[in-house]
Amino acid sequence: MILASLLLLSTPLRHSEVSWVEVCVATAFTMVLPWLYLLWSTYRGTVSDLHVTRRSQRHKIFALTAVSIGLGLLLLSLMGASQRIFVEVLSILAGLLMVAMINLWWKVSVHMAVGCYVALQLCTSLTLVPPVVFFIAVLSWSRIRSQQHTPSQVCGGVIVGVAVSYLSGWIAMLS
After folding, report:
1. What are the phi and psi torsion angles at 47 (to 5°)?
2. Is a pLDDT exceeding 90 seen at residue 50?
3. What's the per-residue H, E or C state across 117-136?
4. C-alpha angle 51-152-165 in degrees, rounded to nearest 5
């Protein structure tokens, strides 16, 4: 969540056509409101922890987040926001939907999906490939070492992150 928020908040620095107002609205609906709901759910005891380690508890969080993102997209549309902010938010929504669908049957690492996606989005030249691969390897190791995920769940998260990164590029080319 933190990495995705930082990536989203950095959009005006990477794409001059995106305004800070657009980024604030996008961040509020894609990150802040879902995070507040997760905090509230954890406080109430309806989810086990902030990482929502129990797969059965993730669906409600995913659904609420998707609705929040949809409302954010509607507001951005009414604001006449730039195409690039839609690419960013639609990419986040695509990642969420992929992870949500997989989690119907299997617990994939959301941390790895997001971490891999963010790292690849920031990888703008071949000289950045070694640090990105190192980051992904360390994050993978930490998820397995902390016993939050199995190696296959971590690999699944990496695959989702790579897929969303490519999808993001494809959406950007279409817009």
Report:
1. -130, 150
2. no
3. HHHHHHCCCHHHHHHHHHHH
4. 75
Total-model pTM: 0.89
Residue range 89-101, pLDDT digits in tens: 999 999 999 999 9
HEC-encoded secondary structure of the chain: CHHHHHHHHCHHHHCCCCCHHHHHHHHHHHHHHHHHHHHHHHHHCCCCCCCCCCHHHHHHHHHHHHHHHHHHHHHHHHHCCCHHHHHHHHHHHHHHHHHHHHCCCCCCCHHHHHHHHHHHHHCCCHHHHHHHHHHHHHHHHHHHHCCCCCHHHHHHHHHHHHHHHHHHHHHHHHC
Q: Distance between CA 19 and CA 94 in Å, rounded?
A: 22
Residue 54 confidence (pLDDT): 87
